[in-house]
Design a protein that fits this description.
Layout (H helix, E strand, L loop, with lengths): L1 H20 L5 H51 L17 H4 L5 E8 L8 E9 L11 E8 L7 E11 L3 E11 L1 H6 L1
Antiparallel strand pairs: 1-2, 2-3, 3-4, 4-5
């Protein structure tokens, strides 16, 4: 009988030892696991936040590119006007043809010192302020048409779209092209 009792006592001790070892994780192990999980989660959230911000900026740049291209296509659809107006001055009379609704116009001139043969170069500037481009109220667009520079009978068209990005401040996107009557006739 003694051996049976001793065997039962040994089995009971083994069961007690097993239950102490199998009780679970210690408090330190749980805290270390939670700290690792929190660190990984914060890293993933920072990545997601940066991804969202960069996608928003890419969308804004795509819209700005579309607005630039739209304006250049409107310029290309209009006939090139290098002729002078009937007022007797030497200002090219193109404001009515190239100005879109909602745009303000200004004209300036300068003498080209680096190429004196070109004489006076005229620049027309058309500005669509923020809120005047239908569907894109946060964007503004400036179109500058320079006549006779860099070559005579060529018009340089420069379109700049600006907007405000909440994270990076004021941003802009610019496209430049050149128009000439023979180019337009080939289209």
């Amino acid at each position: 009988m003694k051996t049976t009792q001793q065997g039962a006592v040994r089995a009971g001790r083994r069961a007690e030892q097993r239950t102490e070892a199998e009780l679970g994780f210690t408090m330190i192990e749980v805290l270390v696991g939670l700290a690792l999980l929190a660190g990984i989660t914060l890293g993933i959230m920072a990545f997601v936040d940066a991804s969202i911000r960069l996608n928003k900026l890419a969308l804004q740049r795509s819209i700005a590119t579309g607005l630039c291209v739209e304006r250049i296509e409107a310029l290309q659809a209009e006939r090139f006007h290098p002729e002078l107006d009937g007022d007797g001055d030497t200002t090219p009379d193109v404001t009515a043809g190239y100005q879109l609704p909602g745009e303000t116009t200004s004209i300036s001139s300068r003498d080209v010192t680096e190429a004196p043969a070109l004489g006076t170069v005229w620049t027309h500037q058309y500005v669509a302020a923020a809120g005047t481009i239908p569907g894109y109220e946060e964007y503004s667009r400036t179109t500058r048409l320079t006549y006779g520079y860099p070559l005579a009978a060529i018009m340089r068209a420069e379109v700049t779209v600006t907007w405000t990005n909440l994270n990076q401040g004021e941003k802009s996107h610019q496209l430049v092209t050149f128009l000439h009557p023979s180019i337009e006739q080939a289209q």
